[in-house]
């Protein structure tokens, strides 16, 4: 397995909508790629990682939330009710910056695994937040776009002041 380079905010791939994976079981490179994504996420100390965060515009993300570890290919989610949660959220592609983001507390996520097994789950709490955050990545949306304007300005100031941001 390989630890992949995580793309940082400012890289155009993070604003690119990822393409669906047409035939997960017919792509011999996909299992190794998912293993590499899991290793990369672990190495960076994250709970989720979307494929475009490592420069690949395919609809795949990996997760490890409270012992719930795996991946979802071609994820689609829907809110199960109007209940929301607001919590601090960060991102491996935006080091050392984060803030309060409101997300649905319970969602149903569907997709498939690399083996072609269907995924159809109801998740809540951190896993629901992860599903929404990583699917946003696959849609070219960054977490701070979901923040209130004042909080978003604060995150953008942190980004501009960081040593990693390309000015």
Automatic annotation (TrEMBL):
Cofactor entry: Fe(2+)
What does the note under cofactor report? Binds 1 Fe(2+) ion.
Q: Which UniProt keywords apply?
A: Hydrolase, Iron, Metal-binding, Protein biosynthesis
This enzyme's EC code(s): 3.5.1.88
State where Fe cation binds.
Answer: 91, 133, 137
- Into which family does the record put it? Belongs to the polypeptide deformylase family.
* Stated name of the protein: Peptide deformylase
Q: Main role?
A: Removes the formyl group from the N-terminal Met of newly synthesized proteins. Requires at least a dipeptide for an efficient rate of reaction. N-terminal L-methionine is a prerequisite for activity but the enzyme has broad specificity at other positions.
Q: Which Pfam families match?
A: Pep_deformylase
Q: GO terms for molecular function, please?
A: metal ion binding; peptide deformylase activity
